[in-house]
Amino acid sequence: MEKIEKLKSFLIHSPDDPFLKHALALEYIKMGNEKDARRIFMEILDRDPAYIGSYYHLASLMARTGEIDNARTWYEKGMTAAKQAGDLHAYNELQAAYEDLID
User: Residues 60, 22, 80, 35: is their CA dihedral positive or negative?
Assistant: First the structure.
């Protein structure tokens, strides 16, 4: 809980920082608060679609909660964003997770 409070205090001064928001969402996942994690990942990607790392975690969260079609869509969007950014490493990670999902 301490990390969450620290991240929230940092976000008071930098409310649009995608790194801080992403870190907060990951902490929520660790605590089992997938609802808030999902909301934050969606906010990040709505504001900054080039923030590649959030695609993987959002899609993975959706897959864990049984939202397979939504997970597939977000993995696909992430692969497109990673390809546009020239981030081959992220693309490969997203593609591998996508393939595991659809197999």
Answer: positive
- Contact assessment for residue 62 and residue 74, using Cβ atoms and an 8 Å cutoff: yes
Does the predicted model carry a pTM greater than 0.85? yes
pLDDT beyond 80 at 1: no
**Architecture in CATH of 2-102:** Alpha Horseshoe (1.25)
Domain ranges of the chain: 2-102
* pLDDT digit string, tens, across residues 66-94: 999 999 999 999 999 999 999 999 999 99
Over 80: is that where the pLDDT of 56 sits? yes
Answer for the pair 75, 101: CB distance below 8 angstroms, yes or no.
Answer: yes
Fill in the amino acid letter for 41. Answer: F
